[in-house]
Specification:
2 copies of one chain form a homodimer.
Chain A: E1 8-14, E2 19-33, E3 38-44, E4 49-53, E5 56-60, H1 64-78, E6 84-89, H2 94-99, E7 107-111, H3 115-124, H4 126-129, E8 137-140, H5 144-149, E9 155-161, H6 176-185, E10 186-195, H7 203-216, E11 219-226, E12 234-241, H8 251-256, H9 267-272, H10 278-284
Parallel strand pairs in A: 6-7, 6-9, 7-8, 9-10
Antiparallel strand pairs in A: 1-2, 2-3, 3-4, 4-5, 10-12, 11-12
Helix pairs in contact in A: 6-7
Chain lengths: 286, 286
């Protein structure tokens, strides 16, 4: 068959099959059925590499910065001096890369259930995964929920960078039990953030996420960011704490050390991200 | 062929064919090659009807409110008493519907080049087009640029709801000449808004739009909104004026009359929409 008559495309299908995003693929870089899930890394024409789990895109290299910066720097700058950080999920290393931009950080525990994800990303996604070898990072390949249930008053910041709630490994990470364990694993002034889906195609999952989180944390606030690599591009995150507002702490002096390494996050965006369109305010009744 | 083995899909293709959004179609409602462009209206499974020109989606009924509210109410509330409004493009009627929510409005001129668009939307998209029959609305089927070049100091607000700049009818609406004509058609305290593409797949077109606009207007400011119905969902709008800042004028008393009819726009969103991620700030150097 002549080459110009064939093409390889990756279709991410959502909304019960009614909508799909279709990407032209240059090369298959890595493809494996691990014990837990299907792992794919593809080279695209103009979005860099994409990394998918069970057919759901986790990131593309061109636009992952919007997601990773916003899930990370909002809680990090809301804490006055984050030293001990826990990342649940996030085996691609994107969150860890952002966390380590803060010089106050002494220890990052990364709990990624699937060792093959770590291996694949270290080998084929250095743009996000290269900091996984930093000496401050400890990697645990186990279920996030069982890990955090053993912890007590240990972390300044906990970030949950999970897969979707309705399938596979991420499911247990959207429950009251898990959120309560996270609250207990935080120090008194600790801060929690998590991806919370989108209101366009996953409104029910988003609502459930906030409902469960509200049972566990006294303070829960949604914030949003443009995440063009995900369905609808309209991404919601959850900020939670025992009593700490998402105001920027000691920002000026700390920001200096990060200047030039941030491409989405800035202090005005931090504040603006907590402002929601009317329909979203009503959906989450906050 | 058994029915379950076939399906109709509409693929909107962008980024030089590297990316597409694919939608399952229930029915073809209307499909016509007009003198100017191909017009399609389809029934989807869960997004209501979609309306496309030359294969580019203009709206879906489920999510058009985010776009139409933000392109309209930001300029309308930035003006203290908008009476005379010009809408260029926007034959689907979505902008006109939003404009007419403001009781101060006495006259709306709608300049839609293609009479078949008006006809199709009146017949098959009543959710946006029903207000096109309002007695305050005058419809002109001619080129937006030549229409506005005849006007002088006539309008309080001008809204450009055009197709993309790189194809078909919208092309002349992204030039210095057109923007200068719009400035001259505005009263001294008049306000201009326009859709300005997205930074993800159309960054160059977005930059050009602002570059040309800056030649014509003393004050140009980008603002953003989540528009999940368009590629990337990350939509940029341009606000421009001779000297009027995009602050809300006499908001409280005016908002009362619109409460319950706004689903995205609120005053906090108005302000937050002018805050940009760092990479966008740099791209537009504002």
């Amino acid at each position: 068959m002549p080459k110009e008559n064939s093409s390889l495309r990756f279709d991410e299908i959502f909304s019960n099959g009614n909508v799909a995003t279709s990407l032209r693929i240059r090369n298959v870089i890595y493809s494996k059925q691990s014990k837990i899930q299907r792992i794919d890394i593809f080279e695209t024409a103009d979005l860099g590499r994409i990394f998918a789990l069970d057919g759901t895109i986790m990131l593309n290299e061109r636009w992952e910065f919007t997601y990773h910066e916003m899930i990370t720097h909002v809680p990090m700058f809301s804490h006055s001096n984050p030293k001990d950080v826990l990342v649940i999920g996030g085996g691609d290393g994107g969150v860890v890369r952002e966390v380590l931009k803060h010089p106050s950080v002494e220890k990052v525990d990364l709990v990624e259930i699937d060792p093959d994800v770590i291996e694949a990303c270290k080998n084929y996604l250095p743009s996000t995964a290269s900091k996984l070898s930093d000496p401050r990072v400890a990697i645990y390949n186990e279920d996030g929920k069982s890990f955090v249930m053993r912890k007590d008053t240990e972390y300044d910041v906990i970030i949950v960078d999970s897969t979707d709630p309705y399938k596979g490994a991420g499911e247990s990470l959207f429950t009251e039990e898990f959120y309560t364990a996270c609250r207990n694993a935080l120090k008194e002034d600790g801060i929690f953030s998590a991806e919370a889906e989108n209101p366009v195609y996953d409104g029910k999952e988003m609502e459930k996420c906030f409902r469960e989180m509200n049972k566990a944390f006294p303070m829960v606030k949604p914030y949003t960011a443009f995440v063009p690599m995900y369905p609808s591009g309209f991404w919601v995150f959850a900020y939670a704490s025992k009593n700490v507002l998402p105001t920027i702490k000691d920002g000026k002096s700390r920001l200096k050390k990060l200047i030039g390494s941030l491409f989405y996050y800035n202090f005005k965006i931090h504040e603006a991200s907590f402002v929601a369109p009317t329909f979203l305010e009503k959906l989450l009744e906050y």
